[in-house]
């Protein structure tokens, strides 16, 4: 089988001349890449804060430029095109990373700090008094509501709330004892 000449190539210009054009474009791209990769990577690194990520994004931008090199090399400023592609890739990447981080934050279990000893004692003491007294004490001293606000919320007279508070504090006083370290010795 004998090789045939490309009918689209002018006579006298066989495959060797046709291969020179892609090789020349490849060398041109290599020079373009070498001249710009560090500068653009530094800019994207400053934007993302992650060198490895910046290198990957810039490599992707240069791959896209290589795929379109015939067109890109004709631009007034091919470096600006590659920089813009890298910047857009970085912005998209940061946006996706933010979405993922927000999702992970919502999935994370929230651990509350365990209550200290005094709080445990208070919770136990509150659990041991009547429901109305407990609710009145919590609303007054923890939620900061006034007697009038508690009365309105509970649908009772203010005198009733004052009675609940008095009896609730007395019940708590009987259940809570403050022991000084010196008393324990």
TrEMBL record:
UniProt key word Transcription: yes
InterPro entries: RNA_pol_sigma-70-like (IPR039425), RNA_pol_sigma-70_dom (IPR014284), RNA_pol_sigma70_r2 (IPR007627), RNA_pol_sigma70_r4_t2 (IPR013249), RNA_pol_sigma_r2 (IPR013325), RNA_pol_sigma_r3/r4-like (IPR013324), WH-like_DNA-bd_sf (IPR036388)
Originating organism: Glycomyces mayteni
RNA-binding listed as a keyword: no
Keywords linked to the UniProt accession: DNA-binding, Sigma factor, Transcription, Transcription regulation
RNA polymerase sigma-70 region domain sequence ranges: 33-98
Transmembrane segments: none
Family: Belongs to the sigma-70 factor family. ECF subfamily.
Annotated RNA polymerase sigma factor 70 region 4 type domain residues: 121-172
Domain of life: Bacteria
SUPFAM superfamilies: Sigma2 domain of RNA polymerase sigma factors, Sigma3 and sigma4 domains of RNA polymerase sigma factors
Name of the protein in question: RNA polymerase sigma factor
